[in-house]
């Protein structure tokens, strides 16, 4: 029975999922990219520092809506995909995003107290003078949960699910390897969000390995006479544009000595919010003055 299903899967096709890709891109921009912006713009009196901010509520909604959309995307795959791997990935995704919610909430609230994201935890003026000094270790632990553990448990299953879905986006019919105009228009916002995700999440290694795996799969399937369908092309081209955006971002900030100090090593990819606290926040303060 399973062999029959797998044989049929190869010849199934799927139309472009405009509704899912649109909702996916929209909620990514609003609930993920928009959450720190909402926290900064909305009056502080509405969300006291000892209570969840507007961005935290955005994050909570993201943690519910995103796994739901990912599951719906997997359901629409024309290929039978490994359900156990998908379920474990979704569970890990929710747990990692929830860990990140707490750490990110505290770290962003520290901005109102003078915390500077372009500096390390121990180099921040409001942190290095804490007494006793063991409190600094606690803030470093919080930073670890936010930037390392939370990001890893959030983004690894996220990209894994996208890749699992991508494995089912192949068709033997060349005419179906085309994107509708709606997909072309949606590709720009989608690619720009992935740029933000990779740079702010500091997950370039994970992203580039996923992209290389996608390239290898495309070449492997091409030998079998299979090509990407419209959904596969949308995802693949979005990743290509994302790579170009990252290259442009790095090239623009290549000679920034302060950001170079925070992001040492071979892979130099500054975070957008570190750039904001270093350059843009000072500009806004000068204008207000």
From TrEMBL:
The chain crosses the membrane at residues 20-42, 57-74, 86-103, 154-174, 203-220, 232-254. InterPro entries: CLN6. It comes from the Eukaryota. The keyword Ribonucleoprotein does not apply. Keywords: Membrane, Transmembrane, Transmembrane helix. GO terms for biological process: lysosome organization. One of its GO terms (cellular component) is endoplasmic reticulum. Coiled coil: none annotated. The keyword Ligase does not apply. PANTHER family: CEROID-LIPOFUSCINOSIS NEURONAL PROTEIN 6. This is CLN6 protein. It comes from Daphoenositta chrysoptera (varied sittella). The lineage of its organism: Eukaryota, Metazoa, Chordata, Craniata, Vertebrata.
């Amino acid at each position: 029975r399973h062999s029959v299903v797998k044989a049929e899967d190869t010849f199934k096709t799927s139309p472009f999922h405009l509704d899912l890709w649109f909702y996916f891109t929209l909620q990514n921009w609003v609930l993920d990219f928009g959450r720190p912006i909402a926290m900064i713009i909305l009056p502080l009196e509405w969300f006291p520092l000892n209570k969840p901010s507007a961005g935290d509520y955005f994050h909570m909604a993201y943690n519910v809506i995103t796994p739901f959309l990912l599951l719906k995307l997997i359901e629409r795959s024309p290929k039978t995909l490994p359900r156990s791997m998908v379920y474990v990935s979704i569970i890990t995704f929710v747990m990692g995003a929830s860990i990140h919610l707490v750490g990110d909430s505290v770290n962003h609230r520290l901005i109102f107290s003078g915390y500077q994201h372009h500096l390390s935890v121990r180099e921040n003026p409001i942190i290095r003078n804490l007494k006793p000094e063991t409190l600094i270790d606690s803030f470093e632990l919080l930073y670890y949960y936010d930037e390392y553990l939370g990001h890893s448990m959030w983004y690894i299953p996220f990209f894994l699910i996208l890749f699992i879905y991508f494995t089912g986006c192949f068709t033997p019919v060349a005419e179906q390897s085309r994107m509708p105009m709606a997909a072309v228009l949606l590709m720009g916002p989608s690619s720009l969000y992935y740029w933000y995700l990779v740079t702010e999440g500091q997950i370039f290694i994970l992203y580039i390995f996923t992209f290389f795996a996608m390239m290898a799969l495309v070449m492997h399937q091409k030998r079998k006479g299979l090509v990407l369908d419209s959904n596969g092309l949308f995802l693949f081209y979005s990743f290509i544009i994302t790579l170009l955006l990252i290259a442009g971002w790095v090239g623009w900030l290549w000679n920034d000595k302060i950001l170079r100090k925070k992001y040492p090593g071979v892979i130099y990819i500054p975070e957008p919010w570190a750039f904001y606290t270093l350059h843009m926040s000072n500009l806004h303060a000068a204008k207000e003055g």
